[in-house]
Design a protein that fits this description.
Strands 1, 2, 3 and 4 form a four-stranded antiparallel beta sheet that branches. With 72 residues, the protein is an alpha+beta fold. The protein is elongated and about 55 Å long. It starts with a helix and ends with a strand. It has one helix and four strands, in the order αββββ.
Length: 72
């Protein structure tokens, strides 16, 4: 049983090595970025910023990079 399992794992290793990151694009019309600034002695300000464009890369279900342009 151990031999069969080991062979199966060895056979799958090259497939994972060939996996390329997937790139996803953000939808600027459906996206907003919320922010909040707080004072040391009470009080706060909140607002939103518009996203102009953006994308991020996912590999093995983890975000490995990205780039976003924010209209300030």
């Amino acid at each position: 049983m151990k031999l069969v399992l080991s062979l199966a794992l060895v056979a799958l290793l090259p497939l994972s090595a060939l996996a390329k990151p997937e790139t996803y694009k953000a939808d600027p019309k459906a996206s907003t970025i919320g922010w909040e600034g707080k004072k040391i002695i009470g009080g706060a300000h909140q607002g939103t910023l518009a996203l102009q464009s953006g994308s991020f890369k996912v590999e093995k279900n983890k975000i490995i990079g990205g780039e976003f342009v924010i209209d300030m």
